[in-house]
Amino acid sequence: MRFFTPGAAKASIKFRMPTAENLVPIRLDIDVDGNRFKDAFTWNPSDPDSEVTNFAKRTVKDLKLPSTFVAHISQSIQNQLSEFHSFEGQEMQIKEKIVPIKIDLRVNNTVIRDQFLWDISNLESDPEEFARTFCKDMDIGDPEVGPAIAVSIREQLYEIVTQSVSSARETRIGKKGRRASDTLTNSKAGITMDLGKLFGSKGSVVRKRKEWYLYEPIVDILSNEEVGALDAREELNARLKRKLDEKDESFQTRYSHG
Amino acid sequence: MLKELLSGAMETTQPAASAPAPAPVPASSQTFTPSSAKSADPPHLLQTPSVSSTKSEGMVAEPRDPPSSASLHPPEPSSSAGPSHASSSYVITIPSCSGWFSWDQIHNTERRILPEFFDGKSASKNSEVYKYYRDFIIRRFRVNPTRKITLTDVRRELVGDIGSIRRVFDFLEEWGLINYTPLAKPKVWETKRYVEKWILLVCLNPPRQDGNEGHTYPYFVEFGCKQADIILCARCFVRGDYRPGLSSTDFRRLNITEETKTDWTDKETLHLLEAILHYGEEWKKVAEHVGTRSEIDCIARFIKLPFGEQFLGPEGSINGNPHKEKDEMTTKSIEDNALEQGSPKRMRLTPLADASNPIMAQVSFLSAVVGSNVAQAAAQAAVSALPKVEIASGFTVNDEKLHSAADGAKEEDSPAVDQQAYSEILSVAAAEAQAKLETEQKDVERYISDIVQVQMKEIQDKIIHFEELEYLLEKERLQLRHMKDLLFEDQLTYLQHNTRPISKGAEGQNTKSNNHVP
Asked: What does the entry list under GO cellular component (chain A) (predicted)?
């Protein structure tokens, strides 16, 4: 058992997901010839690489996608996994112990919005458990919601820990780095909770009533038309974004040579 | 492949009434009518002893742990794992090898094959999580058993990492707990009748050679062409694999006759048994030995044989040479008789007489001549006589019997010969079993004594430890006493010093009083 005194908020440990199971969130968004495939799930990075190709083949077969997807899927998963592996072995410093996690998802007909505090330094935390309990407590009928919540939590945790790694890297670079890392973590990781204020002598552990609405989970069931409308809007946004990205790229290539 | 046939045949050729009575179950409830094949006749071939071969395909019945009390069904001896009605979606069938499954429990098989959930290495992978995955997947499948569920369906709805979900899914699929519809299996196993018919049709002829490509085929439909004098198997015909000059119209369909569901004659059964003993599981050789039956027939027949009662093990082949010599005498005498008897029997005998084993020939002839009833009686007599015959002296008794058989009349020959041959086999088997039993017992005894020794050592160590403690305590006590004495001394001197300056006259009194201080 490790005991952290409140003062020593910095703990330097090897990079890993701050959860009981060191699982990586994977998000797929592949568009081939107009066929769009979106998916998100959790992957165990210690699974062998053969699993990736097997999984890709199986998914394509099960969903009857064109076989060109196999390569794309495998590659996307591999990229994300290798990114994860590149962080491994490095030190990370977990400064803020309690971070807010926000859930804002739409899964089929269900919209979920929630916000809660998560203890990063608790390496035994379990987003899957949370997702399961959430769905059970909120009586969510659609079974696809659970995995989506778990993946969303993991993604946010992943982002936080990767930033603490990069900050650790920058502290090693130079003296100024420490200060820079402070500002970085404070700005990028979103609102950090000042523990002292919350649990200090004046504060109490019980949340103020006026803040309750912020932390209440909201689960909405949409009708099919609303779903259709939202889907269409998302598609449009995605297409616009892609066009903008392409423009950016062409802009860069054009002017980088110049 | 043969193992699958074997297991498939075993499941579907249970002689008693067909499928389990399907209790029409409303789709919403979760009960099911699994069927367990109580293999009353366990051909040792099927029950492979290797428990470690967990990935065995098909439906080989693994040695099952005793069914848990939470199991939902009483084992029905006559039921098989065959489908009840193909169209019904309310009945859920699972193969017999998965009969251990129950909603409330996690079976050892599951623990063995998916240890990641049970070894406690990861906090979030435990048996509840496993149960949650397993129950979810199976329930989802059973909502619509006619449709196979895919991993993708399932993993999208299960919270957890893909790898673990995939492993649970694969495990369930392999063991037929999901996606197991006998419809999905090759048509051969669809109904019991069909299977029987198939096997029997195949039985009628030895594997035929295809005229076109030379491969053997057991099918019961073939196509003959008059002009070219070729017989094709159905597959080649359909595919069009014949030489260019011919067309499909030139072929005429020849159906192998279906009427005769030939029972195995005793001759053939004896052949079969002897061959099996000799060759083990090499069905090819067994089929050769039997001669008139194909491999599949032999397998099917062997499975159907009720062991022990009627037909005992094959005779003759393990007797070894010394007996062969003696038997030849009898063989000769009997063959002479056979010649006398006339041509029809001789004709029947010829294939058998050519069999590699002269004893086999003799015995089969005898049983054929004498008739199955007498042979049965002889066998039963042998079985009952066996316990009286000592194992060690079994062979000598057999020798005598052989001699007596050689001298005696023909009618007496067959029972005696059969009897002693049968009893020999049994005695040898019994001896082996006995030996094994003894070694087992010895092992057990040894283990027990080891355990006892270890425990004794433990106790001894404890005793030593306590002795040391006692010693230490004793020392401490002595020390304590010593210190008490010192303290007393100090008290005395202190008091003496105190009382001296007060009054020298009262010294005597003080010393007196001091002396009274304990």
From this structure: nuclear chromosome
Amino acid (1-letter code) at residue B383: V
* pLDDT band per the 50, 70, 90 thresholds, residue B307: low
Which tokens go with B414?
Answer: 């067959």
Q: What angle do CA A139, A145, A149 make, to 5 degrees?
A: 110
Distance from CA of A185 to the nearest CA of B (A): 29
> Partners of B217 in the beta sheet?
B208
CB contact under 8 A, A44 and B153: no
- Quote the tokens at residue B320: 């070894």
Q: Give me the sheet containing A110-119, strands edge to edge.
A: A98-107, A110-119, A218-221
Token couple for A17: 């997901």
Strands (E), chain A: 11-14, 24-32, 35-43, 91-94, 98-107, 110-119, 218-221
CB of B377 within 8 A of CB of B370? no
CA distance B126 to B269: 53
Distance, in Å, from the CA atom of B285 to the CA atom of A37, rounded to the nearest integer, reads: 56
Residue type (1 letter), B221: V
> Which chain B residues are Cβ-neighbours of A80 within 8 angstroms?
none
Please report how the helices B192-204 and B295-304 are oriented relative to each other, as an axis angle in degrees rounded to 10: 130
Contact (CB<8Å) B159/A150: yes
Element (H, E) at B487: helix B410-502
CB contacts of B132 in chain A (<8 Å) are: 132
ipTM, 2 decimals? 0.75
Residue B171, Cα to own-chain centre: how many angstroms? 20
Percent helix, strand, coil in chain A, to 5, is 50, 20, 30
A147:B166 CB<8 A: no
User: pTM (2 decimals)?
Assistant: 0.44
Q: List all residues of chain A from 155 to 194 with a beta carbon under 8 Å from chain B.
A: none
Question: Pick the residue with more confidence: B153 or B223?
Answer: B153
CA gyration radius, chain B? 40
Least reliable range by pLDDT among A39-48, A203-212, B363-372: A203-212
* Structure confidence by residue, pLDDT tens digits, A176-225: 444 444 444 443 344 455 555 555 556 667 777 777 777 888 888 888 88
Spatial distance between the Cα atoms of B486 and A127, rounded to a whole number of angstroms: 69
What per-residue confidence (pLDDT) applies to B455? 96
Q: What is the pLDDT of residue B393?
A: 56
Question: B169 in contact with A at a CB cutoff of 8 Å?
Answer: no
Nearest chain B residue to A130 by CA distance is B159
pLDDT tens digit string along A13-30?
A: 777 777 877 888 888 888
Q: How far apart are CA A214 and CA B137, in angstroms?
A: 36
Report CB contact under 8 Å: B151, A62. yes
Contact at CB, B162 and A59, closer than 8 angstroms = no
